[in-house]
Amino acid sequence: MDQITITQLKESHRLLTEFKYAVQPVVHGYANRTLYINLDSNTITIKPVDQKMKDTFTGGKGFCLWLLWNAINSDTKWDDAQNELVVAGGPIGGITAYPGSGKCTVVTLSPLTKSIIDSNSGAYFGPYLKFSGFDALEVQGKAKEDVVIFIDGDNGTVSIEAAPLDEVNTHLLSKQLTDLYGGETDKGKRAISVMSAGQAAEHVPMCGVNVSYWDSRRQEIRIKQAARGGAGTVLRNKRIKAIVVKYSDTGGDSNGAANMELIRAAGKRINKEISDFDASQNDMRHLGTPYLVEIMNKFNILPVQNFRFGSDPEASKINGEVWKSMFDFRGPDGCWYGCSLQCAHAVPHYHLQSGPYKGEAVFVDGPEYESLGALGSNLGIFDPPAMLELCFYCDTYGIDTISAGNSMAFAYECYEKGILDQQKTGGLELTWGNAEAAYELLHQMARGEGFGVTVGQGVRVMKSLFAEQYGADPQQLQDMGMEIKGMEISEYISRESLAQQGGYAMASKGPQHDEAWLIFMDMVHKQLPTFEAKAEALHYFPVWRTWFSLHGLCKLPWNDIIPVSNKTAKEPAKVPEHVENYCWLYEGLSGKKTSPEDLMAQSEKVYNFQRLFNVKMGFGTRQHDYPPYRLIGPATVEEYENRKDLYDTQLREIIGVDPDGKSVEEKIRLVRQHRENQYEQLMDAVYLRRGWTKNGIPTQATLQRLGIDFPEAMAISAAHGG
Amino acid sequence: MLAGKNSLPLEMENGQSVLDAFFRVLEMVPALKPHWLDHEGQPHVFVHVFLNGDDAATLPDGLNTKLNDGDCLDFIPPVAGG
Ligand code: SF4
Fold first, then answer.
1. What is the A343 CA–ligand 1 centroid distance (Å)?
2. CB–CB contacts below 8 A, A to B
3. What is the CATH code of the structural domain delimited by A494-561+595-722?
């Protein structure tokens, strides 16, 4: 089909409603208003943000959770009109003097987990939304036809427009809308950020949203993703093709900071560090997150063949150095102004080998480490062009690479074990390393047909389907299905790190490493030798990491660059100098004296509130915090045999059993008994440290201590024994 | 593995330590010096040395741990996860 022109596109848009408002300057990081859009009635209103809301929920993810809490009931389902898609940047977000300050967070009731999820993305949406006048955006209801929502912060208008001819897939749609609303100049295009999903979001629950910005140096649309948990599926379920925000006047002081000098001092300190040491450390500016492939492989942490193994001799074919030679270094790679860490790389001129755009040369953002683990090693695919093909189509169709990779890997293993065959897969041969089959599964998800739609439902749904329909052993499927809470596990093998098992399984939204990444602290540097130490880490780090999404910040500049002062730091894993930088940022913004404890207090409120929100929705208790056994220990003979020496030694030295003369099955049973017991003890220790009951409920005393003891919260806690 | 990139065989004398090997590598690959050494000529805080898979800093003798034939050393940057 010929692509339509921008004039045709413009003519095809029909205004359904328009709302005018006065754009006000941001003061101390806050616009002090949120935007509410209802697509059932095409109504648009503004809600005030009061001091209590700021004191309790800070902003960003905290605001999103609070707005959603007030919008839905405990029996609301993800595809009810009542469900909302809520998006926010955060108070610090949008500054340009400190790296990593352009994130936005998306919160919704998830089609994948059926509970509350949050996912964050880079690119310009969060800051532009705030500078346009809104600390958060709520979209409720469902449109009767496909629409685009346009927030024009330059002119103070919000419109809902019927958009019948716009593309759905991100790489085309973002370009169309950037051209339509941004015009022909670089300045105009730079003022646009588009949030969209893709075709697959109309058919499968594992779709996230893409967020765009214009890269004027390369003359390309760039995209980042809030990929996890199904926000893109919710977007399309509401018949939104895209939400576009426009703001032209971003400057160094757009946040209305109380003390710019302090913000600049923090920025100066870290920017010098990045300039001096990034090349000696992780070289994020040239390798990006793919630097992790080689290291994870070295330490047996890289998921291979559905998390069965932790390394593969072929991993070097997709490691950081390979991507460095392919990345486009024509311009800076920060996904928001002023990010000197610049890890958002991309590969130009990739010629697609399959699907609707076969033969076209495209610009592929990434790949990131997670995508390489999920779609590469975890499927036994170690071919860079295949990685680009899979990443490109996942992104443009809106599919989360982690959920897609793990779901496909689960299906591949089921195929290997005979649970699936070609008849059941519609003729696809799901053998390890078969990239063409993976391409086809993605195209099927996008077309809404074939076995791809089954895979696209995610691991949890496949587990019950295969047990019910094909008579597979439910316990075996449970052990090898790499999901928790209905969300697929991100790409780190945590078998030898009890703390990380907890980090994954006790994470609020599901097993995403943004809440806790403790593998090196625990397994490699051995800094968490006791249950108490692990519990302390599982208190501190999830709370601390949550803080970034309250403020619209990227976590990477916190600990992907290490200052020299860490040499004498008492707790180097916390990177105290950088925490001090964040205190300066908040103090500089708000004008209030700020300590590390103040930052933690902001976050602990929201962390506990999210847990309670899960409880309100029928989740969030101990029974929801268990991982599949493969995350804890060797689930099969081949996994045991793969690291036999390690497990035999552990049996002898830790469990106190002589492995000699025992069958592998018996040894697996003994290791399992021990490790599952350890996990139970860890849960007890963590819940105690967090101020939760043994069933994982924040107690009323905890809610009071944190100042989130409003009546409904207290009643939920009380009703669950808190 | 050197910062995730290369590998090379090391010939060391009897009784030499992990730290000796660290400086031996720098003699063989001087280009690494600005990356691995601080301004006092000591190992940077962010270079982690692993002996046969164990973080040398966690061993009883730390970087002074003596080497044996066939030992494998890895030099790894600070890893924070995604
Ligand atoms: S560190 Fe990377 S992901 Fe984070 S803001 Fe900078 S470029 Fe974006």
1. 5
2. 78
3. 1.10.599.10
The ligand 1 atom at the shortest distance from the C-alpha of residue A560 is 1
For residues A87 and A125, is the Cβ–Cβ distance under 8 A?
A: yes
Topology classification of domain A6-246 = Aldehyde Ferredoxin Oxidoreductase;  A, domain 1 (3.60.9)
On the CB side of A221, how many CA atoms lie within 13 Å of its CA?
A: 23
Q: By percentage, how much of chain A surpasses pLDDT 90?
A: 94
Residue A2 — very low, low, confident or very high, per pLDDT cuts 50/70/90? Answer: low
Phi-psi category of residue A360: left, alpha or beta, with phi > 0 → left and psi -120 to 50 → alpha: beta
Q: Sheet containing A33-38: which strands, arranged edge to edge?
A: A43-48, A33-38, A136-140, A84-88, A104-109, A116-121
pTM of full prediction above 0.90: yes
Domain with CATH 1.10.599.10 in chain A: 494-561+595-722
In the chain, the amino acid numbered A608 is: N
| CA separation for the pair B60, B63 (Å, rounded) | 9
Rg (CA), chain A: 24
Q: Do B82 and A517 touch (CB under 8 A)?
A: yes
Residue with tokens 């995610």: A458
pLDDT on residue A12: 97
Stated length of chain B: 82
**Number of Cβ within a 10 Å radius of residue A644:** 14
Of A519, A525, A562, the CB nearest to B81: A519
When CB atoms are compared, the residue of B45, B57, B82 closest to A562 is: B45
Enumerate residues 6+ apart whose C-beta is below 8 A from A301: A310, A492, A493, A494, A519
Q: Averaged over A295-317, what is the pLDDT?
A: 96
> Which of A368, A363, A326 minimizes the C-alpha distance to A217?
A363
Q: Would you mind telling me the total number of residues written for chain A in this entry?
A: 722
Distance CA A288, CA A291 (A): 6
pLDDT at B81: 67
A493-518: pLDDT as tens digits: 999 999 999 999 999 999 998 888 99
CATH T-level fold of A278-488: 1.10.569
Range in A109-118, A128-137, B62-71 with the lowest mean pLDDT = B62-71
pLDDT of residue B82: 58
From the list A505, A501, A524, A479, the residue with the least C-alpha distance to A637 is A479
| pLDDT: which is higher, A191 or B79 | A191
Mean pLDDT of chain A: 96
Q: Could you give the angle at the alpha carbon of A56 between the alpha carbons of A684 and A486, nearest 5°?
A: 45
Tell me the C-alpha distance between A715 and A652, whole Å: 49
Q: Which residues contact A430 (CB under 8 A, 6 or more apart)?
A: A408, A411, A412, A414, A415, A416, A420, A437
Q: Which two tokens stand for residue B9?
A: 């065989």
Distance in angstroms (rounded) separating the CA atoms of residues A583 and A602: 12
Residue A472 CA to residue A466 CA, distance in Å, equals 6
Query: How large is the ipTM?
Result: 0.84
Contact A410, A482 (CB under 8 A): yes
Number of C-beta neighbours around residue A351 at 10 A: 13
Is the pLDDT assigned to residue A1 strictly greater than 80?
A: no
Note the helical H segments in A148-240. Answer: 170-182, 186-190, 231-237
Asked if residue A3 has pLDDT above 90, the reply is no
pLDDT digits (tens, 9 = 90+) for B12-36: 888 899 999 999 999 988 888 988 9
- Residues of A in Cβ contact (< 8 Å) with B46: 277, 280-281, 562, 566
Boundaries of CATH 1.10.569.10 in chain A?
A: 278-488
**With 70 as the cut, is the pLDDT of residue A159 above it?**
yes
Q: How far is B7 from chain A (nearest CA, A)?
A: 13
pLDDT band at B3 (very low <50, low <70, confident <90, very high): very low
